[in-house]
């Protein structure tokens, strides 16, 4: 008897689980990050700086995307990018109109959105 078997390849995520690794808190990360990536507006009524697991992202982003997708620009990871649900990411959002998601270990920008346009940004005056 001959048994032919096709070897199965282990699926590896582009961003595997890293919840066991320590990361700096979101406030300290923001204070030390490159401000050209994301900068909060002065006098903003609300802002959010959080270290979360990737699986929590959709709930948080949904609040911000109501405005950023319909009224501005938004980007997300490619459909071919695989991210483990427990992967740690930083979420920075402001005024329910502007956000960025940065991967905690590699500092890759995974997603962003902004509905403020230069001509009508109330915080650039």
Topology:
Layout: H1 26-32, E1 47-53, H2 57-71, E2 73-75, E3 88-94, E4 98-103, E5 109-114
Antiparallel strand pairs: 1-3, 2-5, 3-4, 4-5
Please name the defining characteristics of this protein.
125 residues; alpha+beta; five-stranded antiparallel β-sheet; 2 helices
Helix coverage percent of residues? 10-25%
Give the N-to-C terminal Cα separation: 80 Å
Low-confidence stretches: 4-10
Sum up the overall morphology in one term: globular
**DSSP strand (E) fraction?**
15-25%
| Secondary structure category | alpha+beta
Please state how the strands of the largest beta sheet are arranged side by side. Answer: 1-3-4-5-2
Give a short account of the largest sheet.
5 strands, antiparallel
Q: Quick check: average pLDDT? A: 76
Order of helices and strands: HEHEEEE
Radius of gyration: 18 Å
Number of beta strands = 5
Count of alpha and pi helical runs: 2
Word description of this protein:
The chain has a 5-stranded antiparallel sheet, with helices on both faces. The longest helix is centred in the middle third of the chain and has 15 residues. The chain is α+β, with helices and mostly antiparallel strands. About 6% of the residues have low confidence. The protein is globular, with a radius of gyration of 18 Å. The chain has 2 helices and 5 strands; from the N terminus they run αβαββββ. Strand 3 and strand 4 form a beta hairpin.
In a few lines, what is going on in this structure?
This protein is of the alpha+beta class. Helices cover 18% and strands 23% of the residues.
């Amino acid at each position: 008897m001959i048994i032919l078997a096709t070897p199965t390849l282990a699926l590896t995520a582009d961003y595997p689980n890293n919840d066991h690794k320590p990361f700096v808190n979101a406030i300290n990360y923001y204070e030390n990050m490159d401000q050209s990536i994301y900068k909060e507006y002065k006098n903003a009524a609300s802002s959010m700086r959080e270290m979360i697991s990737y699986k929590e992202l959709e709930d948080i982003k949904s609040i911000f995307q109501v405005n950023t997708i319909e009224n501005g620009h938004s980007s997300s990871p490619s459909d071919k990018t695989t991210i483990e649900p427990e992967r740690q990411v930083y979420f920075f959002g402001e005024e329910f109109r502007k956000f960025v998601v940065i991967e905690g270990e590699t500092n890759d920008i995974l997603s962003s959105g902004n509905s403020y346009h230069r001509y009508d940004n109330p915080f650039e005056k």
